[in-house]
Design brief:
- The complex is a heterodimer of chains A (about 400) and B (about 290).
- Chain A has about 400 residues and is of the alpha/beta class.
- Chain A folds into two domains: about 25-150 and about 290-360, Rossmann fold (3-Layer(aba) Sandwich); about 155-285 and about 380-395, Response regulator (Rossmann fold).
- Chain A has helices spanning about 1-30, 45-65, 90-100, 115-125, 155-170, 185-200, 215-225, 240-250, 265-270, 275, 295-310, 315-335, 340-345, 360-365, 395; strands at about 30-40, 70, 75-85, 105-110, 130, 145-150, 175-180, 200-210, 230, 255-260, 280, 350, 355-360, 370, 375-380, 385-390.
- Chain A is globular.
- Chain B is mainly alpha-helical.
- A two-stranded antiparallel ribbon of chain B has the order 1-2.
- Classes of the chains: A alpha/beta (about 400), B mainly alpha (about 290).
- Chains A and B meet through helix 2, strand 8, helix 7, helix 8 and helix 9 of A and helix 1, strand 2, helix 8, helix 10 and helix 11 of B.
Chain lengths: ~400, ~290
């Protein structure tokens, strides 16, 4: 009888272990495909490259830890990324591919405002959760409940930045702005002009250029003729911003320099050269090596640099954090159903590389879909990026 | 608006026009000899830029030696492209057109894979600015413009006085007659393609320190080059120079009066007007 019992117990044990292995095997076989979009070539390629790298860092971290546990299932994360070259038509095509061909329910990462609008024509009707770093004002709204901005935009950044300029550099009275001639550029200049007027600055010039422009002499000649105290290369991507600053210096500009949407000052130093980049203030950047950032960000920066041989800019950090927030929300919802994840996303703050991250922005966009965290203002000094102040966006103060 | 500002705007426009004329001359030379519109011409310009980046910015070679290297290497790449690809498509303009489009994408994608997608900055070779009567231009741009003028003059002398240059002109005028006179058509074609690409490579090398280099950098100059040769007249060296100056002037003044965003259409408007009024270009046959 004992032998029979032992045999039954052994069989039961083997069956349980086998079932466990089978279950685990089945769970590990589950794959969660997440889409990443962005300009991976052309003048704005630095944005797309950082988006993909930020996503890769988080996805690999999750996969190495055994996968993403959602309810009773464990998912291996697979990334699918497409290059839309910062063109709206290409972005719509890529979004269609992701949603209808690759069957993704989450697109975490996109940049350049007009492309976000194009992607949203696909994601919103299909209830695909879409997170981006685009700076278009109308990228967020009550009619777009499935869309999130993972990075502070001009509406959160411009006012505290120029308030700081006014306090710390009272000699700056006249500001000239230049941005690309598209949604991101127009919205950025609009927000900066509003902040400038609200703070009693004078707008010396409010100009736009076509993306891909290399020779800024003609437009700078016109802008510098207005004799601004400060030149803000507002929404220009790093490569173009660097060229503008370099050529402005050649044309004799010696005033203050700002980069409201400045995402990676390290690139601007390379393109503009140390002298032309000297003194540029940027309120959007994150310096992963600074005293203002948490040890988690510093660690992220070290890992990133080790892996890609470059220092990450704010977009890489933002997309890493967005991945973190979305995957945590999936775990909280115990489901991949986007309605349930959406509900989980908007319920509580998340601990991320930014620290405590809050979803807000209702007073600006009519819906809480903007990631909010403190603004760090950096300055380029002697070829290095130095953080000099931390200010809070108005929405976060509340 | 002051006169000073107007003159500065014109100077801005003319400043780099000569470099785009170099690209245009390469394009028109290849067309004249092989009757091929080489859409991949901008990619040879891009190659010149990357050679400058690696030789000058990374390995510290002298700037002018780097420029010579860019011209030579891209010229040889052009000869190789003619021998391996376009030689077999002579007389089949449509096929050559499609192949050149394919070559454009292959070279651009190849550059993305080989060099990465991000802009690579090339440090300025010359510092300082020149100020004359309130007008400003960087020393770097002055050197670039003068270098482009020297290269244009060298091309003129080569085509006018050298034996291979005259052979190329003969092939451009009438290949059959040239062959009857003992001109080696194959050699002249390969040389013509090589010289055309070398000019683009030189232009890429000249502009690399001004604009940084990237895989897609060839798109803009090649569009400007097409405008220049359509306005100036296909196959005309003085026409290309005139087209370049006109485009530079229009763009410089346009930015002042209409804003930078509207400037891009001015060149195309100029093309439409010239095609309607003088379809063969302002100085065709000159």
């Amino acid at each position: 009888m004992m032998r029979i019992r032992a045999s039954i117990a052994t069989i039961a044990m083997v069956a349980l272990v086998a079932a466990g292995i089978a279950t685990r095997g089945a769970a590990q076989d589950k794959t969660l495909t997440i889409g990443v979009l962005g300009p991976l070539s052309g003048g704005a390629a630095s944005y797309g490259v950082e988006l993909v790298r930020g996503a890769e860092m988080k996805a690999d971290e999750i996969n190495k830890a055994g996968g993403l546990k959602v309810g009773n299932d464990v998912y291996h994360i697979k990334l699918v990324s497409y290059d839309h070259k910062a063109l709206a038509a290409d972005a719509a095509t890529a979004a269609n591919k992701l949603v209808f061909q690759d069957k993704v329910k989450y697109i975490i990462g996109n940049a350049v405002g007009a492309t976000c609008n194009a992607v949203q024509t696909v994601t919103e009707p299909e209830k695909v959760l879409f997170s981006f770093v685009c700076w278009g004002t109308n990228n967020l709204g009550p009619d777009k409940p499935h869309s999130f901005r993972a990075m502070l935009s001009q509406w959160e950044v411009a006012e505290p930045f120029y308030r700081w300029v006014k306090e710390k550099h009272p000699a700056v009275k006249r500001v000239a702005l230049i941005s690309p001639n598209d949604t991101s550029g127009k919205d950025t200049n609009t927000a900066v002009v509003k902040a400038l007027k609200g703070l009693a600055f004078e707008v010396a010039a409010d100009e736009y250029y076509e993306r891909g422009t290399k020779d800024f002499y003609p437009i700078l000649t016109k802008m510098l003729a207005t004799q601004p105290d400060m030149l803000d290369v507002a929404a220009a991507p790093a490569g173009e911003a660097g060229l503008i600053l370099k050529q402005a210096r050649e044309l004799g500009f010696k005033g203050a320099k700002g980069w409201t949407a400045g995402t990676n000052p390290f690139t601007i130093i390379g393109v503009a050269g140390k002298d032309a980049a000297e003194g540029v203030w940027s309120p959007t950047n994150i310096n992963v090596k600074s005293d203002f950032v948490s040890p988690t960000v510093r660690r992220f920066g070290e890992e990133y640099e080790k892996r890609y041989k470059e220092v990450p800019g704010v977009i890489a950090v933002a997309n890493y954090a967005a991945f973190d927030v979305f995957t945590k929300a999936m775990q909280d919802a115990r489901s991949l159903d986007t309605d349930k994840v959406l509900a989980a996303l908007t319920q509580k703050p998340f601990d991320t590389v930014w620290g405590k991250l809050v979803l807000g922005g209702k007073e600006t966009y009519g819906i809480d879909r903007q990631f909010l965290y403190p603004v760090v203002i950096s300055e380029i000094r002697d070829g290095k990026v130095v953080d000099i102040a931390q200010v809070l966006p108005a929405a976060l103060k509340k | 608006m002051s006169i000073e500002l107007l003159v500065q705007a014109l100077l801005n426009g003319f400043g780099l026009a000569m470099v785009y004329v170099l690209v245009a001359l390469g394009l028109t030379l290849i067309f004249s000899i092989l009757e091929i519109i080489n859409f991949a011409h901008g990619e040879f310009y891009m190659l010149g830029g990357y050679i400058t980046y690696y030789a000058y910015a990374l390995f510290g070679l002298n700037y002018f030696a780097t420029l010579g290297l860019a011209i030579l290497t891209v010229g040889l790449a052009g000869v190789a492209a003619e021998r391996l690809i376009f030689h077999h498509l002579r007389g089949r303009a449509l096929n050559a057109f499609i192949v050149s489009l394919g070559l454009l994408w292959v070279m651009q994608a190849g550059a993305q894979l080989a060099f990465g997608v991000l802009d690579k900055p090339v440090p300025s070779a010359f510092s300082g600015v020149v100020r004359v009567f309130g007008l400003v231009m960087s020393v770097e741009r002055v050197v670039v413009t003068l270098s482009a003028i020297v290269l244009i003059a060298a091309l003129y002398l080569f085509l006018r006085w050298s034996r291979p240059g005259r052979a190329m002109r003969a092939v451009a005028q009438d290949p059959d007659a040239a062959a009857l006179q003992g001109v080696n058509i194959d050699a002249a074609s390969a040389l013509g393609f090589g010289v055309g690409c070398a000019l683009a490579g030189g232009a890429g090398g000249l502009l690399a320190p001004l604009f940084a280099v990237s895989p897609a950098m060839g798109a803009l100059p090649v569009v400007k080059a097409f405008i220049i040769i359509i306005v100036g007249g296909m196959g005309s060296l003085p026409g290309a120079v005139l087209g370049g100056l006109l485009l530079g002037g229009v763009e410089g003044l346009g930015a002042l009066f209409m804003g930078s965003a509207a400037v891009n259409i001015l060149g195309f408007l100029m093309v439409i007007v010239v095609l309607l009024v003088r379809p063969r270009g302002l100085l065709s046959g000159a």
